[in-house]
Amino acid sequence: MPRQIRPTTVHPLALRELEVLRVVDVTPGMRRVTLTGAQLGAFTAPDGARIAPFRSTGFDDDVRVFYPHPGETEPVLPVFKDGGVAFPRDQKVLQRVYTVRRYDEAAQELDLDFVRHGVGIATTWAYRATPGERIHLTNPPASLGIPADAEWLLVAGDDTALPAIARLLEELPADARGIVLIEVAEAAHRQALAERPGVDVRWLVRDGAQRGGADDGGAAPHGALLLEAVRGLELPAGTPFAWLAGEQSAVRDLRRLLVEQHGIDKTRIEFTGYWKHGEVVTVEGDAALVDTSKTEDAWHRFHEQIEVLPGIAIRSAVDLGLAEQLSRGVTTAPALAEALGLDAGAAAKLLRYLEAISIVVRPGGGADYALSETGVYLAEEWVQHYLRGDGGWAQLQRGFLGLSESVRTGRASYASVGGAPFEELRLDPGFEARHLEAMNEWASWLAAPVAESAAFEGLHELAIHSDAAGAHAAALVARHPALRVRIVALPAQAAWLRADLPATIPDAAQRERVEIVEQSITEPIETEAVLIVQRLDRHPDADAAYVLRRAAASAGRVVLVEDAYDPEAEDEHAAEHDLLALTVHGSGNRTAAELESVIAASGLSVASAEPVGWGMTLPVLAPGAERSK
After folding, report:
1. By CB count within 10 A, which of 373, 411, 498, 538 is most buried?
2. How far does the chain reach from its first CA to its final CA, in angstroms?
3. Residue 218's pLDDT is what?
4. What are the helix (H) ranges across 419-565?
């Protein structure tokens, strides 16, 4: 998936309770709700944690808002602890994500703009909200800036993107250059926006453009005007940055158009599906209130849980290219078979099954297929990257096929299903490249807060052991100008890192402070400190203790980043990671107590520890140290 080129500031997650201060209609199609409250500032959470003030520095920052179910007065809320979040298993959390239109820290005011289109949980709340009403939300998980090397901007979005676009225009420098395309339902929905001499803002109005097969009373279909406008653009010279937001399918097609027709590199495009078309069931007697109740019984849930084929069939649809071709308008079984070189009869069988599980539909009941409301996700590049059989994630998850063997023996079973132990397969450069690409996908979200830790203050030399070593090195050398970093890697990983490092650390001066050393994690290396990131979970306890002991022998100070498993959280994904580590490495995702036992067995002690967000704590280990208070 595309590399994150926007400068990123990660914020600790926190739940805040605010109240409605005022409600105004910006246009007939947009309502602004202004929120306020002491919890926009620093406060102490119920668990005693000290919460930092609300921060929002990015034009497209978003907050997650929580709503009560119909007939209820209080929302079902997740639990926030140590920078992480856990959702209740037996109750559905009703939430929606909205852009921060304005945040005034001095006045303690937060503006959220709500588009009035159709029926929705958030829309109905906004159009019924009154001053004094309480609401719960999280702060933005991160703020992203404009890439420093962007010479001009292309911004395109529908009504739902207007809050972000309006804020962007207010915050752009006076000499900014760019093209902004905004599609709205009707002329009355246009807003007064900040003007920049070098930025061309164009409004596209659906009700003023008749198109066949429309979805707005004969007006242009949603997103059609944006596609038409982008298709006809003459783009400026220089390095671009494109930002696209709106209806999911329209945004996907806009991005495809920029890449395939205009030749813009995928890494220069930020795209977000704010919403997607779908049917809404309303509460009987109140057509503006969404019915969120679920009628699944225990048998239905059990039946879904034991199904094997859906996941296999969905992955086959991605591997064969069916989902991609359907999104491009190839709609019949014979046409798909011809385009993809498939057996026509077999392709028809797979399509019939995909229709049975609601991944594809036949809108007219004929021979033409289309991706369903759920199936459209399969046309998203990041989903394809995750599901493709030859990708790093899929190959890692093959370990699950040996789960029974691992549970019987307590040892890794990957060799029995993968043909060789996982670490042996990693010696193959092709396999290693796919694995490291998978591991580095979201690394920057952890790397940034880790680099901010006080554990690295005053250091001049640091060695890193991590599958995402490049991302961590980039964050560290950017944050600490005097720091030199040695990435310790085996040859296959080292080769991939050398090829990837110029893109991960584009600043040549910073890159010169990063050295790649080919050796194993247990070999000595002279340095002031060693950073080990999520590597202990691939070693059994005795081996993990040995790794820590050897690292301390090289440096004395060991900085550790491990995702401890919280049995009380009932987190499905954490439990999944625990089983995956068992099948692949014969280890597991240790609890905090289990990790403490490994540290004790290594002869080290925790000198200090601090939370770094996402539910993780960063301990600094040293021989015979006493933990600082």
Report:
1. 538
2. 42
3. 58
4. 422-425, 429-439, 443-451, 469-479, 491-504, 508-511, 541-555
